[in-house]
Amino acid sequence: MIVAGLDLAAKPERCSGYAAIDLGELAVKEVGCLGDNESIINAVRNARVVAVDAPLTLPKRGGFREVDRLLIKVGGRVLPLTLRGMAMLTRRGINLAKNLERLGVKVIETHPRSALVVSGCSTLQEVFDVLGIKVFEPYRPLLDTKRDLRDAAIAAVVAACYLRGCATRIKAVDGEIWILKKLCSEQRRKTAEVRGSNPRGLTKYLV
Q1: Does the residue 204 lie in any domain?
Q2: For residue 20, what are the β-bridge partners?
Q3: What is the pTM of this model?
Q4: What string of DSSP letters covers 76-111?
């Protein structure tokens, strides 16, 4: 089963970071940049869930949705949707989500940096270690150096956790945002440093 994460760009000529995780192998399977909506749809159409880093609903008034305000309360940091770039991103995200849902793909909204903060983990690699997700060459250096791809990978983890029970939903009348549950603690960090990864990983969430 494949899940995907998308760090959507406001304009199709810019890189929309993309990452896919195979839940059967617990491994990152694809990482890269996508462009127009057609290339995005072709890449993720077979995914069970796609987590998108973009607003997928509009505010009733002002620059922030109520769901954005709730995310800020738990430590998230988001930009107002009245900014030109954010308005463009929102329109593109809503349109893309509708097209994917017509194909039977479940689309959820996420905010990768807020997801990482709330998880208690310091880095993407720490999240991978706790959940037992493997990353092979040539993807590791890309995730280490490209922010768009790193955010896409965090989004893909949120999609995986949406299915496996390690994600949590922030919901309001004007939308919902999925982020990670508390995954890391001081003790888990020490365990990860000793073992290199959690041998149980996502399997603990299969109940």
Answers
A1: no
A2: 4, 30
A3: 0.90
A4: -----TTSHHHHHHHHHHHHHHHHHHHTT-EEEEB-
